[in-house]
Design goal:
With about 500 residues, this protein is an alpha+beta fold. It contains 17 helices and 20 strands.
Length: about 500
């Protein structure tokens, strides 16, 4: 192969590179070379969709993507809707199965997707070289000279067009962990954005809660807030003011004072948050779906969808808070009626038993703790005034300022339950980090899309194309990223051949 002249050389044999090579070969049965640095093609595909490969979505549109050039992206997506992705794979011999708008290969194995791509490349007689290191891409007149190392030997090939499809470090599938997939593009003078891990889990500040919450899965609604302006780390004393358990003793509060301070702190924190959400916080996004709790923080699809934005805000040194609603089916204005009805149905139960069948036990435990309550406390009822010492003190203290020191049992019961439910509906957690690129499904950022035209040809290096994740385009969970890889790959492959046809 060395010294040969190709119509198109594709760098990177991931989803987008393989789609590009197939499209190029189907457009004109010329010569295409696919260069891959790993020991085999399409490794990442095998890991997608938990091994099932969610390869497209029924609802492909620009709202599900993040990029710097919506015009170019819109053009790429409109030229390759869901039907085009399904037709592309049908031509390769793969049937699809749809579940809630997500498409999978009929046998529900990611290896099917890779197998049909490899088979088609072989039918089209594509030259493929694995375990190579591309050293340099140079423009020589109308052509490109691509230099690479194959088993330590320096080789050169020339090409009418080059397609960059080197993807990203997300998922940790690069053979050479030090390799920068954008290296060759940067050497050609292309510009890129900052890179962030996206579609990944988040680490939260309240480690003491997550140790208890690990393993919980729940359908929730999430609100993502970022603090306005740069975050200055709160001092120990300030943290203690807000009832942060880990700082109370360090800030000099004696054991006896801690419990009281915790209660005051939580109430202050809540007031502050309500005020903050209006004043000092910016609501960035709403999301709904599955939440998974880990011993370090929050995960699951709903969190994945927010993670790219969270990573960006943290990099801007802004504080990030996620508000979790663990009771998304409840309306705030219906709470009062619901609580009163349930109290009349289940009089005299402990708090733990009252919430049985409503909230996950671990979530309840943390909400109770945050409210200064315990699961074994009996909910006060008219004939039962004896066992509420702790709860009574806590609420009497909280409402002392309103002159409600002596609350009736009914009122106390209502306040207790409402406070736990509100805590569960507005559970706020501060995100301190997103996990690293290796654990992320995609990379947010890449080559600025605005450097490419609607055929994905580089505006300043004619004949150079790019596709897939190395471009500054990332999509939500649900098949959007692979869809973009196929769509941009097919477009770049076809246009790369069309461009060099007149030249070769
Ligand atoms: C665990 C996981 C699960 C996912 N699940 C889904 C899902 O279900 N649905 C979905 O839509 N998306 C999913 N994604 C995202 C999706 O897999 C990627 O967006 C997509 O594979 C990107 O394809 P790509 O070809 O652009 O890049 P990549 O897949 O990164 O491929 C780039 C290729 O280029 C090679 N390469 C890099 N540099 C060079 C070089 N200098 N020379 C030669 N070769 C080079 C790499 O080795 C790699 O093989 C998932 C990702 C991960 C990590």
């Amino acid at each position: 192969m060395a010294g040969k002249k190709y119509q198109v050389v594709v760098i990177g044999a991931g989803a987008s590179g393989m789609a590009a090579a197939i499209a190029a070969l189907e457009e004109a049965k010329g010569k295409v070379l696919l260069l891959e640095s790993n020991d085999r093609v399409g490794k990442k595909i095998l890991a997608t969709g938990n091994g099932k490969c969610n390869f497209t979505h029924e609802n492909i549109s620009i709202e599900h993507y993040h990029t710097d050039d919506r015009g170019v992206l819109d053009s790429v997506l409109s030229g390759f809707p869901t039907g085009a992705a399904l037709a592309f794979f049908e031509r390769l011999g793969m049937c699809a199965r749809e579940k809630n708008g997500y498409f999978y290969p009929l046998p529900e194995t990611a290896s099917t997707v890779l197998d049909v791509l490899r088979l088609r490349l072989s039918e089209l007689d594509c030259d493929i070289l694995c375990k190579i290191r591309v050293e340099k891409i140079e423009k020589k007149g109308e052509d490109f000279l691509v230099s690479f190392l194959e088993e330590g030997k320096r080789c050169h090939v020339s090409a009418g067009s080059v397609i960059l499809a080197a993807g990203s470090k997300a998922g940790g599938f690069l053979q050479d962990k030090q390799e920068d997939p954008l290296r060759l593009a940067k050497a050609l003078g292309l510009r890129s954005t900052a890179l962030y891990p996206a579609l990944t889990k988040c680490v939260c500040r309240e480690a003491h809660y997550y140790r208890q919450l690990a393993g919980v899965r729940a359908q929730v609604r999430l609100l993502l807030y970022a603090g306005r302006g740069e975050h200055k780390v709160r001092r120990c004393a300030e943290k203690a003011e807000y009832g942060d358990e880990r700082y109370l003793e360090r800030a000099g509060y004696r054991a006896g004072q801690c419990a009281e301070k915790r209660v005051q702190g939580r109430l202050a924190e809540r007031d502050n948050k309500t005020e903050g959400v209006r004043g000092g916080w910016e609501l960035l996004r709403r999301e709904a779906g599955e939440l998974q709790l880990t011993k370090e923080g929050i995960s699951g699809i709903a969190v994945f969808q927010l993670s790219g934005e969270i990573a960006e805000k943290l990099a801007e040194k802004r504080r990030v808070v996620v508000e979790v609603n663990f009771l998304p089916d409840f309306q705030e204005d219906e709470l009062e009626g619901w609580i009163k009805k349930r109290l009349s149905l289940l009089p005299g139960r402990s708090l733990e038993d009252f919430f049985l069948g409503v909230l996950h036990k671990k979530v309840l435990g943390v909400c109770l703790q945050a409210e200064g309550l315990r699961g074994d406390m009996r909910i006060p009822c008219e004939n039962d005034e004896t066992d509420m010492e702790h709860g009574k003190r806590r609420y009497d203290a909280a409402f002392a300022s309103e002159g409600k020191r002596c609350l009736s049992a009914e009122k106390r019961a209502f306040i207790m339950i409402a406070s736990v439910m509100k805590r569960a509906m507005h559970f706020t957690t501060e995100v301190t980090a997103v996990s690293d690129m290796k654990q992320a499904q995609v990379c947010r950022g890449g080559l600025l899309l605005s450097q490419f035209d609607e055929k994905l040809e580089c505006r300043k290096v004619p004949g150079l194309f790019a596709c897939g994740e190395m471009l500054n385009v990332d999509g939500e969970c649900g098949g959007y990223n692979l869809h973009f890889a196929w769509g941009s790959g097919v477009l770049a492959g076809r246009e790369a051949v069309r461009r060099c046809r007149g030249i070769l």
